[in-house]
Write a structure and sequence with these properties.
The complex is a heterodimer of chains A (about 300) and B (about 260). Chain A has one domain (about 1-140, about 150-290). In chain A, about 70% of the residues lie in helices and about 5% in strands. Chain A has helices at about 15-30, 35-45, 50-75, 80-105, 110-140, 175-190, 195-205, 210-235, 240-265, 270-290; strands at about 1-5, 10-15, 160-165, 170-175, 300-304. The two termini of chain A are about 25 Å apart. The longest helix of chain B has 27 residues, at about 5-30. Classes of the chains: A mainly alpha (about 300), B alpha+beta (about 260). Chains A and B meet through strand 1, helix 3, helix 5, helix 8 and helix 9 of A and strand 5, strand 6, helix 4, helix 5 and helix 6 of B. Strand 5 (about 300-304) of chain A pairs antiparallel with strand 5 (about 75-85) of chain B, so a sheet runs across the interface.
């Protein structure tokens, strides 16, 4: 059965939409990432205009993150204080990101920036995660392997406005999560993602948060960042397709529940290794598309 | 004879001649009447493209031809050209086709080349190359060579054809007993709402002898239209509504799974 999407102004099969939502939702629950970095390119692939895909995906991630964070909250895996500071940064960053998005769209370069951001950030994050998880897996298999320090002290620990985050067992400058939140917020708005795939590694490797509470805290702040993007895109560009988001989230919230359960069965390093492979795959695909001569050198867009 | 009077006579003669010529054409060709199976329809949530039947009567002879031109509502079309810069393919220029038809389809009794000469078709403004589209540069690389119009219009035609909006090929018009004609007009799912003009041209021996016009009104309707209107008239409300819906849906799903 086909359904006509009122904002995207295309007709799509309802099975494809719900299937996309379910599949990506499962992975999002599994890895604690919004899943946007998979969904946005997939929506564009299925013919949704890039601007609509990015804005609509933000709306859908609000729902899947709410659904995901509740499960983590029940297990006490959310650091609200850390999440609160991250989200203040995230709201500032994503507001800037939406403005930047509108500007680049006018220049006709939004597609390039979206794709380049994907290639660069997915590439870096995927590569680092893969290395780390391989190292961890190798180490756990070796009996009597030595334990490394929880985290090293460096310049970041000299920053002012130090705060104690009890749940994260950290005493660090508030500027760190604020800056990370802002940076990921900009990317979230431009790439149509929640930013979990950058936020999660940043929390683990830069902030040194315990892995167990990283996913829940990331989901918590993503809710607010993507809600902010949804609102700003609705007002500025009218590109949030409520009907598309509604059907995607129907699939996604169900998928995310299964994903969260499946995630409990896997070890942290295994999860990160799998996520890394998936991230690198998307990165490679987009990089390939940028480097290879396109079939059509010209492209058109109807400016309604 | 004064100059003014001579001028008046000349004008009168010309006008009379023109009127006689018009009367002659009408007498020679008789009637052409076209109509659509549906004069309007709505793009609702279940819309997945539609088929319309164009039908009518013509006072024709053996060997006559009909050309049907369907033109969708005009819209600006941004055309971007990619080039390799530092190893990656990027958009290097943007041109805007001003008020180009969002949909364009030609149907005919025989292939166009068999019906009339390219000059005749150009004179009749039949074909996207013949409708005087205006292109204006939006952004271009400094010192870029001037766009070669033919390249750009060919690319536009090809891109629009791929989108299904300027489909090419021999759309069939069947003409029965040189009098009754019918044609199926297929409209894809990605058409814009607005007024669609349908021209029917009657040709004999490669020359247009009569023409009729009808139109089709496409509107957004139902839930689809309501969502669209809400998004454009009350964008802030729409944004808040979308967020609240997402939060409630996410919470409901989590609650449902917790019990289950």
């Amino acid at each position: 059965m086909y359904i006509y999407l009122p904002i995207a102004e295309i007709s799509m099969h309802i099975g494809i939409i719900i299937g996309l939502g379910g599949g990506v939702g499962f992975l999002s629950g599994l890895f604690g990432v919004g899943g946007g970095f998979l969904m946005t390119p997939l929506l564009i692939f299925f013919g949704v205009p890039p601007a609509v895909a990015v804005a609509t995906e933000a709306n859908q991630i609000v729902a899947s993150s709410v659904s995901g964070v509740l499960a983590h909250m029940r297990r006490g895996n959310v650091d609200f204080k850390m999440g609160g500071i991250l989200l203040v940064g995230g709201v500032i960053g994503s507001s800037l990101g939406v403005m930047l998005f509108a500007f680049l769209r006018e220049l006709g370069q939004i597609d390039l920036v979206i794709k380049l951001s994907y290639v660069v950030f997915l590439g870096i994050v995927g590569f680092l995660m893969l290395l780390e998880s391989i190292r961890t897996i190798a180490r756990t298999r070796k009996p009597g392997a030595r334990r490394t320090k929880l985290h090293q002290h460096n310049w970041m620990h000299g920053l002012p406005f130090k705060m104690r985050f009890r749940r994260s067992k950290l005493y660090i400058s508030a500027l760190l999560p604020l800056g990370i939140g802002a940076f990921v917020g900009v990317l979230a708005a431009i790439m149509g993602v929640g930013g979990g795939f950058i936020m999660v590694p940043a929390m683990i490797y830069l902030l040194g948060m315990p892995t167990s509470i990283v996913v829940g805290t990331s989901l918590f702040q993503i809710i607010f960042v993507t809600a902010n993007v949804t609102f700003l895109q609705s007002v500025q560009t009218q590109t949030v397709d409520f009907m598309l988001a509604g059907m995607l989230l129907f699939g996604a919230v169900i998928g995310a529940q299964f994903g969260t359960r499946a995630g409990a069965l896997l070890r942290g390093e295994q999860l990160r290794g799998l996520l890394a492979l998936m991230v690198l795959l998307v990165c490679a695909k987009l990089g390939y598309d940028l480097a290879v001569r396109p079939d059509e050198l010209f492209a058109v867009e109807l400016l309604k | 004879m004064s100059l003014v009077f001579r001028h008046f006579l000349a004008t009168l003669t010309l006008s009379l001649g023109f009127a006689l010529m018009l009367a002659g054409t009408a007498a020679a060709t008789g009637r052409l009447v076209a109509d659509l199976s549906q004069k309007d329809f709505s793009i609702t949530t279940s819309f997945h493209g539609t088929d319309l039947l164009l039908f009518g009567a013509v006072d024709g002879q053996s060997g006559d031809d009909l050309i049907v031109v369907v033109t969708g509502p005009p819209t600006d079309i941004a055309q971007r050209r990619k080039a390799n810069r530092a190893g990656i393919w990027v958009n290097v220029e943007t041109n805007i086709w001003k008020q180009a038809p969002s949909f364009y389809r030609i149907l005919s009794t025989r292939p166009l080349s068999a019906i009339a000469t390219p000059e005749t078709l150009a004179g009749l403004s039949v074909g996207t190359a013949n409708i005087r589209l205006e292109i204006t540069p939006e952004t271009a690389a400094p010192n870029a060579p001037k766009p070669r119009r033919n390249d750009y219009i060919n690319a536009l035609q090809s891109n629009m054809a791929n989108l299904g909006l300027w489909p090419v090929g021999n759309g069939d018009v069947s003409l029965a007993k040189d009098a009754l004609f019918r044609a199926r007009i297929a409209l894809p799912a990605n058409i814009l709402s607005g007024t669609y003009d349908i021209r029917v041209i009657h040709l004999r021996d490669g020359i247009a002898i009569n023409e009729d016009q009808t139109s089709l009104s496409v509107k957004k309707g139902g839930l689809s239209a309501q969502i669209y209107n809400l998004a454009h008239k009350y964008p802030a409300l729409y944004g808040i509504f979308a967020i609240v819906f997402a939060v409630v849906a996410g919470w409901l799903a989590a609650a449902a799974f917790r019990r289950g």
